[in-house]
Specification:
Number of strands: 16
Strand content: 25-35%
Shape: elongated
CATH architecture of the largest domain: 3-Layer(aba) Sandwich
GO biological process, one term: diaminopimelate biosynthetic process
Cofactor: Mn(2+)
Pfam family, one: M20_dimer
CATH superfamily of the largest domain: Zn peptidases
Number of helices: 10
Oligomer: single chain
Number of domains: 2
Order of helices and strands: HHEEEHEHHEEEEEHEEEHEEHEHEH
CATH class of the largest domain: Alpha Beta
Distance between the termini: 30 Å
Strand order of the largest sheet: 1-2-4-3-5-16-6-15
Largest sheet: 8 strands, mixed
Structural class: alpha/beta
GO molecular function: metal ion binding; N-acetyldiaminopimelate deacetylase activity
CATH topology of the largest domain: Aminopeptidase
Helix content: 25-40%
Protein name: Amidohydrolase
């Protein structure tokens, strides 16, 4: 079954307008907490629709408020991220980035546009009961913009009772969705390991304590943590991504550093891996007569949907495109998403909308990526149908 990509909720004229917005945002990418032009565009569009609009929330965040024409006490938050990546775009089409070293390589331009499209449709026909909060968030890309909006009073200033997010997903066909009843994305923590030995001449290793040798054993041993500490049905990743040390062929250095990332889907797994990694690092170094320490850089928590809210999203998406075009409970991603902070504060769900094949033109964080404009009406229609489903 092939899903319709242009549901009636989003007209052809609005689709063209949304494509123009999306390409304009793509051409003028702004990275974390510098989304000044984008947030201004968003705020002006919301104000033009007659929405009560609040700016500078968590830095450059924007919240638009739309009250339905029927009385109701439902307060629903819909979130889109606005920031670009620090990435040099290699596309040559007309709407390619005009800011060298900055690129919308993850589709946040499309996310912002789909939510603006939904705001447009609902503002023109607010036939629902309750209040909708359109949340345009800065700094999703490893800068925790969601957390900063929360710290700036997002849920105190606005009585949002439930919150929803959506991300485009390469590899899922255009016109399809994926909904998880639990874990969607992983937590992410960085770590820095410092190994101290005794340096000297490489031809006299018996007089030294070689931190490079220690580093090699730590690198190998870390892979046993997931394999021998987590249940086989659980998921976890430890990747050492950088090694620094040494200066010459004939010099064994005093110090070596290792750096990497930990990804898990459950908080208990997250803490277990961190505990075991620290033990392994310290004791492995000690066994070779060296010393080592580890410092963690906490990142995003895991993105966990509430099942009841996910089931609501499943009902809405299947009503929009049919059951055969919605994946229920697919494997989660070990990538990370700071919408997790919002889901820790309020019940809700985060879903994936298909962006088409996973070639380099669709692969996230690829310098050739471009959002699929054909799914803009479907994304906007999903938001509209979700509001209509919840606010009755």
């Amino acid at each position: 079954m092939t899903a319709r990509l242009d549901p009636t909720a989003a007209s052809s004229a609005l689709h063209q307008q949304m494509q123009a917005w999306r390409r304009d945002i793509h051409q003028h990418p702004e990275t974390a907490y510098e989304e000044f032009r984008t947030s201004k565009l968003v705020a002006e569009r919301l104000q033009a629709l007659g929405l009560e609009t609040h700016t500078q929330i968590g830095g450059t965040g924007v919240v638009g408020i739309l009250r339905g024409k029927h009385p109701g006490d439902r307060h629903v938050g819909l979130r889109a991220d606005m920031d670009a990546l620090p990435l040099t775009e290699l596309n040559t089409f007309a709407h390619a980035s005009c800011h060298h070293g900055k690129m919308h390589g993850c589709g946040h331009d499309g996310h912002t546009t789909m939510l603006l499209g939904a705001a447009t449709i609902l503002a023109q026909n607010p036939d629902f009961a309750g209040t909708v909060y359109f949340i345009f968030q800065p700094a999703e890309e490893m800068q925790a913009g969601a957390k900063r909006m929360i710290e700036d009073g997002l849920f105190e200033r606005f009585p949002i009772a439930e919150v929803y997010g959506m991300h485009n997903w390469p590899g899922i066909p255009a016109g399809h969705f994926a909904v998880h009843p639990g874990a969607v994305m992983a937590s992410t923590d960085g770590f820095d390991i410092e190994i101290c030995g005794k340096g000297g001449h490489a031809a006299m290793p018996d007089t030294l304590t070689d931190p490079v040798l220690v580093a090699g054993h730590i690198i190998t041993a870390t892979q046993s943590i997931v394999a021998r500490n987590l249940k086989p049905t659980s998921s976890g990743v430890i990747s050492i991504t950088r090694m620094v040390g040494g200066s010459a062929y004939n010099v064994i250095p005093e110090q070596v550093s290792l750096h990497g990332t930990i990804r898990t889907l459950e908080e208990s797994q997250r803490e277990l891996i961190k505990q075991r990694l620290q033990q392994l690092v310290e004791h492995t170094a000690s066994a070779f007569g060296a010393s080592a320490s580890i410092r963690y850089n906490p990142g995003y928590p895991a993105t966990i949907n509430r099942q009841a809210n996910a089931e609501t999203c499943y009902q809405v998406t299947t009503g929009l495109v049919g059951e055969t075009c919605v994946q229920w409970n697919p494997p989660p991603s070990m990538g990370a998403e700071d919408f997790a902070y919002m889901l820790q504060q309020r019940p809700g769900a985060y879903i994936w909308i298909g962006n088409g094949d996973a070639s380099e033109s669709r692969a996230l964080h690829n310098p050739h990526y471009d959002f699929n404009d054909q799914i803009l009406p479907l994304g906007a229609s999903y938001w509209v149908r979700l509001v209509q489903h919840l606010c009755i």
